[in-house]
Structure prediction request, 159 residues.
Amino acid sequence: MHTHDVDQELVDAATEVARTRCQGDRHTMAAAARAADGRIVTGVNAYHFTGGPCAELVVVGSAAAQGAHDLKTIVAVGDRGVVPPCGRCRQALLDYFPALQIVVATPTASAPSRRRPSPAHLRLGRPPARCAVTVLTGCHFGPTAPALTAVRAPTPGRD
Prediction:
């Protein structure tokens, strides 16, 4: 297992975009990615009943438009805090960036599992109390998925 530090600046950037731009039904998720040159690229989803791109895929397109063709880490944030990419996004991210690190929230054993986190977590700039932040590498969707490398890291906003 490889140890990866959580890019707190990246989590904070996605949280700020979610807090300030995701108001209403059309934009419900934000994502931020760090490019190899250190830039942070952000984006929001475009929800529509016919489908629409998730925030992670919007970030991939925005990064390409800005000339950032090598992304190293990505995170998505919504009203539930840090959330994992959906299966379609995991596959697209793997295809575009096989070594991409994905920051996700993982449940902690000591927290109640039935409690739904409130949108206040976005206003506070941190994921729900029941989540710790983890970095995944080699994330893949499908029956031939490689083993995930996961490392627990400190929860943002907590000591």
